[in-house]
Design a protein that fits this description.
The chain is mostly helical. Helix content is 84%, strand content 0%. It is built from 4 helices and no strands. It has helices at residues 2-23, 29-64, 68-91, 93-119.
C-alpha cells in the first residue's frame, strides 16, 4: 500500500508544479482563473490516478513477483493515460471527462484489488534472535 500512497503523493506534487505553470501561462486574469479551476477538477484527479496505477504495478513488482513486465507497466501505463488525457484535452472536453471517469474507475478497481491481495496475505512471524 505504501507504493500506491507514495506514487500518488509524488504525482500530486508534480501536478501542483504543472498547474502553476499552466495558470501563469494565461494571457489574462480571467483566462488564468479558468485554467486553474479547470485543471483543479481534471488534471489533479488524473495525476492522482496515474500515481495509483504506477504504485500498484511497482508494488506488485516488488512484493508479489519480480516480473519485469510489471516494472515496465509501472512506467508505461501512467504515461499512456497522461498522453491520452493531454490529447483529449486538446480536442474535446466531453471526451476528456469521459476518459477521466474511466481512469478513476480503473484506479479504484486497482486499489480494491490490491487491498484484497493484502487481506489474503500471510504474515511472517518476527524472528526473536538476540
Amino acid at each position: 500500500m505504501d507504493a500506491i500512497v507514495y506514487g500518488t503523493l509524488i504525482s500530486l506534487g508534480f501536478a501542483s508544479l504543472e498547474n502553476i505553470q499552466y495558470v501563469f501561462s494565461g494571457e489574462s486574469n480571467a483566462e488564468s482563473y479558468f485554467i486553474g479551476i479547470l485543471r483543479a477538477f481534471t488534471a489533479i484527479p488524473m495525476h492522482a490516478i496515474c500515481g495509483v496505477i504506477m504504485g500498484y504495478y511497482f508494488a506488485s513488482y516488488i512484493f508479489l513477483t519480480k516480473k519485469y513486465s510489471l516494472l515496465i507497466k509501472s512506467l508505461l501505463m501512467p504515461m499512456l493515460f497522461h498522453c491520452t488525457y493531454n490529447f483529449l484535452a486538446g480536442i474535446s472536453f466531453p471526451l476528456m471527462l469521459i476518459f477521466l471517469i474511466f481512469m478513476v474507475r480503473f484506479g479504484l478497481a486497482m486499489h480494491k484489488e490490491f487491498v484484497a491481495i493484502q487481506k489474503n496475505k500471510y504474515f511472517e512471524e518476527e524472528s526473536k534472535s538476540l
